[in-house]
Write a structure and sequence with these properties.
5% strand; 113 residues; mainly alpha; 5 helices; single chain
Length: 113
């Protein structure tokens, strides 16, 4: 049940950010839910692989390359979901930073058992 609530909160954050950021577009709430699911799956499957493959550059940049990996995850979601569009990697970077911030705030509202 908590997973569904987190996905819905992420979809809400995607809709809000798409309305705020001019370089990001999502067609509707249903598409935002699909985007939230795709981003969750990409973070679960692809991100650990990318982190492992780019470990040397991540160490050299003191972990800042993780931000680029998050932007790549957003661009991959753009590729897989037709109703979600991000115009450049810079918008994807800003979107991923703000999405993480929104998720931290929204998830903190959930009560822990």
């Amino acid at each position: 049940m908590k997973l569904i609530i987190k996905l819905l909160l992420t979809a809400l954050a995607v809709v809000i950010l798409a309305r705020i950021l001019p370089g990001v577009a999502v067609e509707g709430y249903g598409s935002a839910i699909i985007v939230a699911i795709v981003i969750a799956l990409l973070r679960l499957i692809v991100k650990p692989i990318l982190v492992l493959l780019t470990l040397p550059i991540t160490i050299i940049t003191f972990g800042l390359f993780i931000l680029i990996i998050n932007a790549i995850i957003i661009l991959l979601a753009d590729y897989f979901v037709g109703s979600f569009a991000v115009s450049s990697i810079w918008w994807a970077l800003l979107f991923s930073l703000l999405l993480s911030l929104f998720q931290a705030v929204l998830f903190s509202l959930l009560k822990e058992d």
